[in-house]
Amino acid sequence: xxxxxxxxxxxxxxxxxxxxxxxxxxxxxxxxxxxxxxxxxxxxxxxxxxxxxxxxxxxxxxxxxxxxxxxxxxxxxxxxxxxxxxxxxxxxxxxxxxxxxxxxxxxxxxxxxxxxxxxxxxxxxxxxxxxxxxxxxxxxxxxxxxxxxxxxxxxxxxxxxxxxxxxxxxxxxxxxxxxxxxxxxxxxxxxxxxxxxxxxxxxxxxxxxxxxxxxxxxxxxxxxxxxxxxxxxxxxxxxxxxxxxxxxxxxxxxxxxxxxxxxxxxxxxxxxxxxxxxxxxxxxxxxxxxxxxxxxxxxxxxxxxxxxxxxxxxxxxxxxxxxxxxxxxxxxxxxxxxxxxxxxxxxxxxxxxxxxxxxxxxxxxxxxxxxxxxxxxxxxxxxxxxxxxxxxxxxxxxxxxxxxxxxxxxxxxxxxxxxxxxxxxxxxxxxxxxxxxxxxxxxxxxxxxxxxxxxxxxxxxxxxxxxxxxxxxxxxxxxxxxxxxxxxxxxx
Amino acid sequence: xxxxxxxxxxxxxxxxxxxxxxxxxxxxxxxxxxxxxxxxxxxxxxxxxxxxxxxxxxxxxxxxxxxxxxxxxxxxxxxxxxxxxxxxxxxxxxxxxxxxxxxxxxxxxxxxxxxxxxxxxxxxxxxxxxxxxxxxxxxxxxxxxxxxxxxxxxxxxxxxxxxxxxxxxxxxxxxxxxxxxxxxxxxxxxxxxxxxxxxxxxxxxxxxxxxxxxxxxxxxxxxxxxxxxxxxxxxxxxxxxxxxxxxxxxxxxxxxxxxxxxxxxxxxxxxxxxxxxxxxxxxxxxxxxxxxxxxxxxxxxxxxxxxxxxxxxxxxxxxxxxxxxxxxxxxxxxxxxxxxxxxxxxxxxxxxxxxxxxxxxxxxxxxxxxxxxxxxxxxxxxxxxxxxxxxxxxxxxxxxxxxxxxxxxxxxxxxxxxxxxxxxxxxxxxxxxxxxxxxxxxxxxxxxxxxxxxxxxxxxxxxxxxxxxxxxxxxxxxxxxxxxxxxxxxxx
Lengths: 492, 492
Known about the structure:
Number of helices of chain A: 15
Oligomer: homodimer
């Protein structure tokens, strides 16, 4: 078990590592935090949840950021039906095998039994590609770059709020291209968009790479993914982008006349991320006190808590707080003044810490007199006293940026601390016997080998990273020579 | 048949009235326009449509405007499950009677028959109020002001793109309040938000008023609505807001402890508008050439069409067009340069007229030399030659505002021209025998009377307008004295 040598363990990260080390169960913590921070609630429908306003506001911020990126890369939003004729699913052999067992089926409508049952979309390749076949005739109709924001349903046995629910919200991109190269580039480009979303907005470092055959999307030629490490050392697949080759184009007859007048099948991609990202933010950053939200997606970036005893103090302090809130609002800071009268400051501190608000401003009578505030950082717990009010918007703006960056760096260090190298299977099992870690290793095993490893250790190949050293080594499982290095981990 | 005296018929409106007068069938025109302008396409699922990128962009602009208004009035977005246990629907007697016949039913999930079938939500009062009962305990938890953007399914027999489809997109607001007065105010406030959306954004004048018992939402105490007139004289219900009283609070047990410590049932509202609004814009403004879009919601506000013959002209003209596009973009004008090389200017004119783009800029070599452009207005067909390029952003901004206002005024005049007064039922039938009109009349008939009138004339009471003269008169149907004036019309 070799810790990567290039990592410096800071005091903070060391204690984090300990807190989330072997044997610590994050599962209970996760559910409690999601419920107590009012991100979601259980629904009276099997495997479904209710996304509460605070959780939905977080999702909206993620969605808005991604929607801009999707449009900036030339895609257009559209909307396709929720219901898919059962026969459509069967047109792509691998696809139906993968999804049919998870489908919810509508058998009756308007009081009558349907002639052909509909499945509630588990993903929309089939119905969208049926339409693409209608829309694509000539090379001039390509590329077709479509995205859809929608709900999908996959009947899951073991569900967990946000991470795995029967119904979830997502976007699904579907594209058709004239050439293989262009489709391949598209699949890679959208994975890069997902990497940017995860790293720049969610402050979650991700590995980018390809899935092995065993973990591939049903119907894809290649599946690319971003994989993040959670605070318990487990991996979370945070987004996937598929190069579909001509599989669906052949199944649905998407043909176009190329510039030489010949008919060809289109080359395709599909790609998606979901409300699972909300779970990723919770599990990727949270601590014992609750959520820690990256400023760029936090529904509330700054909360102001007034502190007073007498009625006179209350008037002075509240008036000052309102001015502060107004100043910050004018600078487009998402600020909230907690002026609830029936609660103590201490209660409010806990309330907003649980909800992960990045910055808290405490304002008492002395602060008002000295024209200063006290700043409390949620991510480090650090307090900065006596910050001048006359420059507050500038200070806050800078601090929000610093927190965003620092959260990313902390998560990156945490991942490095919990990524280990295994030279052989004994070492591999030894590491995973101690807890959840990413394991970097040479691996040239096949799907059956992966199955056996999963059975014995619960770990799977998360990805074959794009970044490969290309130095030869020995497969940790088969002992054969190989240059392929992969990341194994237990995952959500 | 008395035309309202306060209306001046302009040349334009007179010809419009003729175009859409008796006997003219707008149905075929509507469908052709929606398909040809690429707003939507038929889906291979009964009663469903595909919203194509242009139609979806229009919906997104409507949605974004409304979402801001909903948030500005203190509401928060959330998300509730797509599936509703069948037993939930049955808890409110009128509600189940109204919606059960329209439901799509999921009977199987994950390969097994479900113990209790789920209906796909036709509207979410039942599941949302089930959750509200969990969340509301004290008066401090009220008001609860929730909105959801979602898809809903109602099994419709006769469908029409956007106007009536089995699946549609909408927002549904659901609120709970401590007092009857507060809930009543909320229902009225949201109707006012809808009026603003319709009039200020869609440029569609609407009547605001109450529905008769016959047209009331299943489970509501009172239903308020906005009603717009389409270009064929038919009415379109464009949005509804319901005062639910305590009906659902009693059915689902939403009880709170009031400030005196007693348990009370909450008072509630629900309100919604849908993708039907896209259809309203098409039918409320379009002409023989296709769509006419109000600038504030048009996906493209300005299209630039370069006109050239030689390669040298092409270079000069295109370069100038790019500069113009950049200038307008910097002023946040949604501008598109149509630089397609394989199409003639004439083809492009038709293309963008069909799609209703408010302003077209034509730029030829002479315009470039004189540093001017030609402006063509979609709503009036008017052309303004020789507009100086050096002030173009200012000109365009002013013109977009003027078009928005002018479209609203034109629609308002059209409605006045096609609204008539009926003193008795003979006159009423006479008017409707000539075509589709709004009929203003005294009416104190009951639901059975309304049913007979509908059978004989296909017209229904669209609303009892809030604006009442409060002068007494005689019911046009029963002949009895009444002060209640209503609007009758045939409707979508």
